[in-house]
Amino acid sequence: MLRYFLPSRALLPLVCWSLLLAGTPARAQDAGKISEILRKAEAAPKKTPAPASKPAKKKEPLPVFLLRDRGRIPAQPAFDAISVRTQYGILRIPREQLVTVRFATRVDPVLLEKATDLLARMESGNEAEEEAATTALVNLGARVLPALRQLAADTASGVRARTLEIIAKIEKTGKRRSSGRDAYKGTRDEIRTDLMTFRGEVLTEAFPLETRYGKLQLRAVDLESIRFKPDGKTSRVLDVAPRYQPAGTWLDTRLDVGKNKVLTIKSSGETSVGNWSLTSDPEGTSRYNSFKSSQGFPMLSLVGKIGKSGKPFKVGKKYRKRSKTAGRLYLAIQPFDYEPAGVDGHYKSMVSITDGP
Hints:
Elements: H1 12-22, H2 28-43, E1 64-67, E2 72-74, E3 76-77, E4 81-86, E5 89-94, E6 98-102, H3 109-121, H4 127-140, H5 145-152, H6 157-177, E7 189-193, E8 197-202, E9 206-211, E10 214-219, E11 223-227, E12 234-240, E13 251-257, E14 262-273, E15 278-280, E16 302-306, E17 313-314, E18 318-322, E19 327-333, E20 343-354
Antiparallel strand pairs: 1-2, 1-11, 3-9, 4-5, 4-8, 6-7, 6-11, 7-8, 9-10, 12-20, 13-19, 14-15, 14-18, 14-20, 16-17, 16-19
Helix pairs in contact: 1-2, 3-4, 3-5, 4-6, 5-6
């Protein structure tokens, strides 16, 4: 009967033991029990291991819409692109490529009409009404300033003087309230993408959004900025070859660093000079530390500059500083002055630009 019974490898030792027991009459009953256990074990359904659960996909942070009244709205944009007028023409920029947009102050047509009415009441000749109009204008706050500045040039001289006084009062109050806030003061909108930063006029007048509580429509006139990516971050990995040297051609990273932005560069890799049996990392070589190069950096060290005429600085393995100037980032390798053309290898740099902290 056993020829029709083929146990698995795991149960084979038990089968052998049962046959051994069956060889003696006193243990035949135990052998029968073991055979029954083996039969049931073979017939029992085998459990298949549960499939490994896939790790949850990390959700990208929502873009943040910063309002001029200090409100912050994280929301999913319901638009695919924005249109920007530049001095060279109109551009259409896909939303996926946007990093930040900072808006210049705009004249709100609603506030312009309201300010015009209040300025007219200031000429009524009624002292109480003029005082009430002045108070109402001051209470409108900084958001009415663009309208007041536009109207100041068109009103009568007497009203113009009072308008300028109101502007001064609002600005003074605004400075106290916004102490420490880095508000954008440009006269044109600033658009920052993964590839470049430029200024122009955002033609999109309203931005449809989807929040967890419902849909919104924000006017451009009410927005101070939009941060499409976390910390306004732009990053790129670059290979810096020895042919890029400070005295000659710099590597154009195609990354624009804004003023007060935090620039972080992490670099690795190795360069070598075979004829001198010399190797170096981005910090540069210390074998010839008595030799002073024209910029004072170690030979074969990684250096950078912001802007074509910017002052070079040492990057090394790790660099992180808040930029005091704005401009295009360039990288280069300090040459080995004894044999500039004999350098092999390269450095790999991860460059990121963020808003802070």
